[in-house]
Amino acid sequence: MTTTLSLLTPSGRLTLGNLLGALRPMAERQGPTDDRARYGISDLHAMTTPHDPALLRTRTRELMTLLLAAGLDRATLFRQSAVPAHTGLAYLLECTAHTGELNRMIQFKEKGRGVPSTRCSLFTYPVLMAADILLHRPAQVPVGDDQRQHVELTRDLALRFNATYGPVFTVPEVVTPAAGARVMDLAEPTRKMSKSVEGPGSILLLDPPDVVRRKVARAVTDSDTGPDAVRADREAKPGVTNLIDVLVACGGSAEGLTTYGALKAAVTDAVVAVLEPLQKRYVDLAADPVHVDDVFARGSARCRELTEPVLADARTAMGL
Ligand code: ATP
Ligand code: MG
């Protein structure tokens, strides 16, 4: 039985992209029992750029509640900061990683290299991510293209550690999930919808129906008014293609639709139909924060049990 691990960072409010591209497949990967699927909130990763403590707390709570509302209740749910082995192993891996390889990380290059006030944690973030992964010994790590370089680093660190100190870590295989839903921003359909970029082109999971309607109505399309204007063509019609993809991913069909108005109405209905039950569960769960806390407290305790021996092996191998 293989372990599957996914972490979500409370760097913003979850979007429709996160639901279709992450939460849904995560729900499908849950086994009949827990421990096989371990899903964490990587709150420590939300501190690599200037952050507001109160906002981090609010977003973390919202994310905890949303994970349960999305039906991930058969997984072991935990908070990274509640499992000290994550930071414990990160330090040991910092003693394995080279500054040269971290300096080449694309996210560091884009977000902070050369800026004196860049947090050190932005530089070492990929090492903490390697620790997140290696502690749980998953055979495979499903990641999108944007995280591929980080998982390659994780493999390199695991191989180097094992070769230098002995076989402690499973070297995970990187798997790219079958071309899954990649939801693009409605206002800028050539870039993906991201939770850290809030704007009119992002549908949030907790957006009420009228907000969804407004955002979809304002979605960028094109000036094509031909009889076959509603068709997928990622190069020439990125906005329309994205709307069709969202419609299909939410259980609808663009067949027979000839105008953008009709397409947008269908997209709104389909998205609202997907979000409504999730939002209902969210409201119920949010009314019982003690239950939500309890689920994460139990999951975090279980993860402490599961990860302590791995950290202990690594410490012993390194001479501690
Ligand atoms: P950030 O802006 O902080 O990077 P994000 O929305 O890109 O936020 P991540 O935390 O990077 O979210 O990724 C969480 C999960 O959501 C990953 O599995 C990622 O592949 C998935 N995901 C993120 N954005 C999309 C999207 N637009 N379409 C499909 N899946 C997405
Ligand atoms: Mg991202």
From TrEMBL:
<comment type="similarity">
    <text>Belongs to the class-I aminoacyl-tRNA synthetase family.</text>
</comment>
<dbReference type="InterPro" id="IPR014729">
    <property type="entry name" value="Rossmann-like_a/b/a_fold"/>
</dbReference>
<keyword id="KW-0436">Ligase</keyword>
<dbReference type="InterPro" id="IPR002306">
    <property type="entry name" value="Trp-tRNA-ligase"/>
</dbReference>
<protein>
    <recommendedName>
        <fullName>Tryptophan--tRNA ligase</fullName>
        <ecNumber>6.1.1.2</ecNumber>
    </recommendedName>
</protein>
<keyword id="KW-0547">Nucleotide-binding</keyword>
<keyword id="KW-0030">Aminoacyl-tRNA synthetase</keyword>
<dbReference type="InterPro" id="IPR001412">
    <property type="entry name" value="aa-tRNA-synth_I_CS"/>
</dbReference>
<dbReference type="GO" id="GO:0004830">
    <property type="term" value="F:tryptophan-tRNA ligase activity"/>
</dbReference>
<keyword id="KW-0067">ATP-binding</keyword>
<keyword id="KW-0648">Protein biosynthesis</keyword>
<dbReference type="InterPro" id="IPR050203">
    <property type="entry name" value="Trp-tRNA_synthetase"/>
</dbReference>
<dbReference type="InterPro" id="IPR002305">
    <property type="entry name" value="aa-tRNA-synth_Ic"/>
</dbReference>
<dbReference type="Pfam" id="PF00579">
    <property type="entry name" value="tRNA-synt_1b"/>
</dbReference>
